[in-house]
Design the sequence.
């Protein structure tokens, strides 16, 4: 099986080592590791840590369950291993060693780290970000949306983005928006919306579908940038040009 499985004696020396455990240490033959400790295979700091854990399990009888460890294998590749160690007892109930199992969770940890990075990026984004379900009901809005619109997340959660509509964009344009994203394409436009206090403002809007693992559209994400100042500047320039 792909999990690391090993058995150690009272001195934390290997008695049994399966294929996955051997590969982690850089060996293929169990005979090369029998009778040796982690000090023979890993760096001293990590080996001391695992030895102390082994002794704790052996002397106290208290197992270690699903402890996450970062292990550098024989090939230099680092892997996150979820390790469990339980005392091994004989027929008389005496502890004669321990049994260890290590499950490689590297992909899971990497995915979690990417999700954390993505989450922080969205939370700290200078653009408003809104995620809706298939019906357009808001499931998530980042802090920038609150800052710009004046609505709190609690006020917009479950609501349709039409609460931002100014009434100045045609129904035809909104039909185009929905036809575009429901067909799996991106919609881009500059739209004038309304804040909670009634103030009008301009946004550059990008809306695109989010697909699930099966490739089906599951959500929509809108990334919106406040371009009110730019629009005002453009209007001022046009007015100046007309006066010339």
Sequence:
């Amino acid at each position: 099986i792909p999990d690391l499985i090993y058995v150690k004696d009272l001195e934390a020396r290997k008695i049994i080592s399966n294929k996955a455990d051997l590969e982690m240490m850089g060996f293929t033959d169990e005979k090369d590791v029998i009778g040796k400790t982690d000090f023979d295979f890993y760096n001293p700091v990590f080996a001391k840590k695992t030895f102390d854990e082994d002794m704790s399990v052996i002397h106290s009888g208290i197992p270690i369950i699903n402890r996450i460890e970062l292990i550098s294998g024989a090939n230099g590749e680092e892997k996150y291993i979820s390790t469990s160690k339980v005392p091994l007892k004989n027929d008389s109930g005496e502890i004669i060693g321990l049994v260890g199992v290590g499950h490689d969770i590297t992909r899971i940890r990497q995915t979690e780290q990417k999700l954390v990075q993505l989450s922080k990026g969205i939370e700290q984004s200078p653009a408003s970000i809104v995620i809706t379900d298939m019906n357009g009901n808001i499931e998530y809005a980042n802090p920038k949306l609150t800052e710009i619109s004046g609505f709190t997340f609690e006020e917009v959660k479950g609501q349709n983005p039409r609460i931002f509509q100014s009434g100045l964009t045609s129904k035809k344009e909104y039909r185009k928006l929905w036809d575009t994203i429901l067909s799996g394409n991106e919609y881009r436009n500059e739209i004038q919306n309304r804040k909670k206090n009634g103030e009008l403002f301009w946004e550059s809007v990008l809306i695109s579908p989010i697909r699930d693992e099966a490739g089906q559209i599951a959500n929509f994400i809108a990334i919106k940038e406040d371009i009110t100042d730019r629009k005002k500047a453009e209007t001022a320039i046009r007015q100046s040009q007309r006066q010339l």
